[in-house]
Amino acid sequence: MERTKRLLVVTSDPLLRSEFTAAVDSTASLHPQLTFASDYRQAIESARARSPALVFADLDEGIDALKSFCDEVETVSPQSVVVGVFQDDRMSDGQTDRIIAALRSHARDFLRRPVSSTELSSIYDRWIMRPHRRSSRSGAIVSFISNKGGVGKSTMAVNTATAITAVTDMRVLLVDLSLQLGVCASMLDLAPSTTIVDAVREHDRLDETMLEQMCTSHSSGLRLLAAPTNPDEAAEVTVSALTRILGLSRRAFDIVIVDTFPLLDELVVELVDLSDLIYLVFHGMVPAALGAEALANTLDGLQIPPDRRRLILNQNYPRFVGELRPEDIARRLQRDIDHVIPYNKQLLVASNAGSPLGLRLRGRFGFGRALGGVRDEIVGLPGQTRREVES
What we know:
391 residues; alpha/beta; Rossmann fold; 2 domains; five-stranded parallel beta sheet
């Protein structure tokens, strides 16, 4: 199968854009789709949407942010190769140091300016036309978020993860990013010997194999990267470490489901930026509905595309006279509610027993049908085929 021939150039320099355009146009053998991004954030969105084979980063844009950018590219588009672009006549002005720093930032190759069709063709041939060892595997990252506790966010994350493992052959990882009060392990009746903090402490030598070894196995086949047992360790989980962990997770697993603490801190902001699908969970009480409205508006401000977001109304309480109806809440939020999860008294009992209801889901009515809709939506993301489940 022919490899994708998309090139992404990250630069705010109009002259460099012209150089790339001319080099591509003058080379008969190159027929790629050439895309430009003016900054790293725009480039990440483009890489996520288009999965370019080569990403050219102008080293004159600043080396400090390059490592974080390379890590994010690995996360959203694992098959992409980052190539540093440098000005050859500035080698005496610290450009050598820039190249060394770029190598440490995981740039895989380099291209001199002014860009020539010959050197561009050489890089194109080296990374696109010939096989190389970078993995093209790319699983999906799915996050469950809220800005209020008690709405059933963790319950939804755990039950969705187990529901996927119950009916598919997909490799599923559950990451407990609720660093202050992680509950995923107890809901699965697990006692992890390692946590996400151990992965952070091995940041420099962490790879897919080591990451898998740090995960705890559940009898269903689900793997858990647990939250720290000591909340004081939460501060060790930095944005750069999280990006690295998610990038490796995405290459090692088909689905990565992330539970979060009910707070929109810098870690959750980074997570939603890297997620393929984001579930905003709330219940129908007025404070939670107002909180969901505020959080949805915040995601708007972060420019998270609507097609990567879903609203889950989790009715985790018995029905009562005067309760808010889903249509009333949707009208207030001025958004459609994508999934309404009805109350099921067995759900909390199952969670307390460490045996999530998602493991024995029946999808015809009520809770089973509603959770099955969330499960099927996620399973469809990577284009995997679900095996039949016995009724």
